[in-house]
Amino acid sequence: MTRAAGTAEAARAARTKLLLEGPVGGTLARLAAPNVVAMMVSAATSIAEGWFAAASGVSALAGLALVFPLVMLTQMLSAGAMGGAISAAVARALGAGDAARAGRAALAAWIIGLGFAALSLLLVLAFGRPLFLLIGGGAAAPAAEGMAYATVYFAGAAAIWLCHATLSVIRGTGNMGAPSLILLFVALGSIPISGALALGIGPLPAFGMAGIAAGAVIAHAGGAAVGLFLVLSGRAGLPLRGAPGALAWRDFADILRVGLVASLNAVQTVLTIILMVALVSRFGEAALAGYGLGARLEFLMVPVVFGIGAALTAMVGANIGAGNRARALRVAWTGAFAAAALVGGIGLLVAAFPSLWLGLFLDRGEAAWAAGEAYLRTVAPFYFFFGLGLALYFASQGAGRMLWPVLSGLLRMAVAFGLALALTGPFGFGVEGVFLGVAAGMAAFGAATAAAIRLGAWGGGLTAPRGGRTVARRMGETG
Hints:
Distance between the termini: 28 Å
Radius of gyration: 22 Å
Number of helices: 18
Helix content: over 70%
Number of domains: 1
Number of strands: 0
Order of helices and strands: HHHHHHHHHHHHHHHHHH
Largest sheet: none
């Protein structure tokens, strides 16, 4: 082992010890702070995309609303569901004292990410346009704009998946600073690249929606390259020598058994949005554009919560791996209420002053403004529940217990779509009925997830008795 590799592994061991023994609130804040800052800057890319699309007209903005759920699904899967499962697998292995297993998890993560990227491209090429026409009420112009974005974005999905998989590996070691810095530069880089390619700045032609997507892909490719260098060079403190030859199915299973279940929650969240888009599209293109802006703000709460959730996944995972169930639960509740307070405060602010958000994209009096304002006043006050449920979802990834977060996501979809369908049908509420359904679904998701964990959804038998290192090592072996 080289001196540099030895120093990196010693630093990684010190970070794992902090996850297991550091003060809960202080350690969580220290880990989450760089993530939250980076995620808030990353949110600026979504705002910029909306502005670039709005500059191209209502059809482009409506097309962005059509493709946005699929883009967010990719982000939620690569950074959240599978990304969280990757971080949890690495953290549990390190918590159990098995660094070699953590190194194999990194290699498995890259293979899984590339597989998902290839699958998503095939699905979008086969079903993208029919899907956009279906949920867009048959409008050809928005569907064409959405497909222009999707073709480029999913052609470059390998860069996005590799970027988030690699950063998730690094987070699993307890290092939140490097991934946050990398994502910060990804966000700062994608905005000018997307703008230049979309609007045709300087000698560049205006590629429109395709240019917006290309900027995101190029920036993530740069982030992936830096992250891969950190891990492959040994600077992340993970031993990779011999990992390819020792790689076995159980290394993939450690990630997939949590990640696939967690992915159901992400799919349910996006499917809920797609169903709402289909309902809103019945009220016209302007209503769809206004709703798209409102839903975009809702989705921006995901990376904000992820800033805390990534720290939760690593910290809970390490403590579960070491058999410290009681401490893992304290970490989960501390982070969950912090996330709920943060996004809940944002929700109350934009509900009281919708122009703070809508004014970034529209002029007051435009047809889309009314729908966007109605959405924010109705749904944003319930962001507290969304933040609470989503943070506990990330914590549950660390614990390897995803059943109830997924069931709560299913409840959210059923409540949101069922109530919206009823209110816009026999009760004649108009588009506001859709928004009431979305709000009720959020409340159901957060309350059900919190209640399940409070009543013991993580189960028992995880707290180590005296001599608990034996239990911890067994937990590391079984995941």
